[in-house]
Here is the input.
Amino acid sequence: MKELILLKEGEIALKGLNKRNFEEAFIRNLRRSLKGIGKFDFRRDQSMIYCEPLEEVDMDEAVEAASKVFGAAALCRAGITEKDMDRITEDVFVYCAKELLAAKTFKVAAKRADKRFPYSSPELCTELGGRILDKFPHLTVDVKSPDVVVNVEIREKNAYIHTGNRPAAGGMPVGTSGRGMLLLSGGIDSPVAGYMMAKRGVDISAIHYVSPPYTSDRARLKVERLCEKLVPWTGETAFYCVPFTKIQEALRDNCPEELFTIIMRRMMIKIAQRICEKNNIQCLITGESVGQVASQTMGAIVCTDNAADMPVFRPVIGMDKTEIISISRKIDTFDISIEPYEDCCTVFTPKHPKTRPVLKDVIVAENSYDFDALIEEAVEGTEVKIFR
Ligand code: ATP
Ligand code: MG
Here is the structure.
């Protein structure tokens, strides 16, 4: 039986006059995400997106990909049938057989958008319910909490049958909430931070700092793999790789050791910001969670933030590690994140980092050396790769 994917709009459905823009962005993202799987036709009708394959496709794979595109609250795959009561009945017997055989109770839910169909919705429920009872005599009807709901939708072109929704990605379509630069390390937190901002519709680019020869090529490749894992959620993602060695060496040689980490953080922010300005990106995103490590105390965050002229979003700021880990498992970045590779943050780390840095002192220390030329050089030496 031919099938399609139904996606029920989430927050988009609540939008007013500009709802269309959000729907178009959603469909554009769906189209892009399903491109490698096959050709699809997209239609929208009453807060529902109908995504119908135009050729033989792997539907499991298509549903999996569609369930990662932000914008829908729920989705399901449905059988496509004719707008004819006997055909609908026959097809329900086959298409829903597995669920009906496993269930004890059921009900029929009907939606009739095409009023030319000779049965009203309640009539359709009664008629089809009766036929199902005849065919599957072990079942009884339970309208309150049935094991299975047989949904029938009578639409313009066809009738659709399915046995229920499952949660979709939620959120807003990527690209409808501006653009952000994710500071992506190899750790657990920053991929989750990127996922969370993408979920709110932010178009994500990623930036990563490397310090060869102190950090290896394999460490960078690990972060690229993390970036690839984000793509089903974030869509096309630019990955900027910044040569950070000279700055770290200058820091080691010129700044008080206990302020090394905090000034390094400020350098990261300054470089990211320069690249954002060149590429029309409006905010920075990090995986910082308050209190987690010495560089993430309130005092340290105050000092880091001061280096930024643009908003720095930290979507996991109030989350426990266990909560962050559960999201990282869900988005399948966890296993890569825990691979033991070095990060530039672990190069030249002080034995006793200041957990309560004073902004004034940090700025004095930073100004004792002229980092501008090195920042410029790092920006110039940045390489970009597109993941899609
Ligand atoms: P994560 O799990 O994201 O690595 P973390 O708990 O290890 O975070 P830190 O090492 O203190 O925390 O880094 C804090 C944040 O700084 C990271 O979440 C990330 O956004 C950014 N960051 C750290 N190292 C890098 C790097 N090499 N390149 C880009 N961003 C980085
Ligand atoms: Mg880290």
About this structure: The chain has 14 helices and 15 strands. The pocket of magnesium ion (ligand 2) is lined by residues 185, 187, 343, 345 (CB under 6 Å). The two ends are 32 Å apart (CA to CA).
